[in-house]
Amino acid sequence: MTPGEAAATLRAARVEGRTLEPFTDEHPDLDEAWGYAVQQVDLAERLRAGERRVGAKLGLTSEAKQQRMGVRRPVVGFLTDAMRLPEGRLDVGRWVQPRVEPEVAFLTSRRIDRALGPTELPSYVAGVAVAAEVLDSRWTGYRFRLADVLADATSAAGFVLGSGVHDLATVGDLAALRGEVRVDGQVVERATGAAVLGDPLRALVLLSEHLAAHGVALPAGSWVLAGALTDAVPLVAGRRYELELEALGTIRLDAR
């Protein structure tokens, strides 16, 4: 299966609102490089259709989630303007198996085109905000291997940004930030920023290394989702969701 064939199959399934069995069931030799190649074909098709790339996202950045999903390393995907969603009412009927998770979002201040060291990171961050990422895997029951999830744009379906963008220096230790997800007022998930690679800022290091390895750059003014603090929570019509990160704010979503 070529990357082009895989991207076309995934695109058709997305448009038709159906899920698939993982490509690796039939082709177990598919690898990370192949998965990213499919992702690049998908992105190129979206850009040709008029979408605009606005950032990047990381996934599977917690060890616990890697173990649950059976993928033993973080993954990198893309964000486009068509994926950005408003806070408030959320039409979940557009997706097949939607889930939502809270994330730290960084707004970049400089072009990232090389691997960055930890001490350089603050100068690349124009601001930080709370975000909610909506996932909708093409793989039935979220069952996949590394090549599958990469080909599927790391399950990215949409993202919501909180209303406030904060200065990195004022929000304190991101690793210590407390976060929680509430459904109809009841807490269903809790975690701290340390769940994301020990410190969400490390997501920028991983992203920069990925960009350098693939010979691409992310311009200033891009959004970067650092990865989920908690497990993804199923989105069910008729329920209200609140995703809160201490010092960054709360996103409220009414699933319809």
TrEMBL record:
GO CC terms of this entry: cytoplasm
Limits of the Fumarylacetoacetase-like C-terminal domain: 81-252
Keywords tagged on the record: Lyase
Pfam families referenced in this protein's UniProt entry, alphabetically: FAA_hydrolase
Source organism phylogeny: unclassified sequences, metagenomes, ecological metagenomes
Designated name of the protein: Unannotated protein
Record's keyword annotation contains Transcription: no
A molecular function GO annotation: 2-oxopent-4-enoate hydratase activity
The keyword Lyase is annotated on this UniProt entry: yes
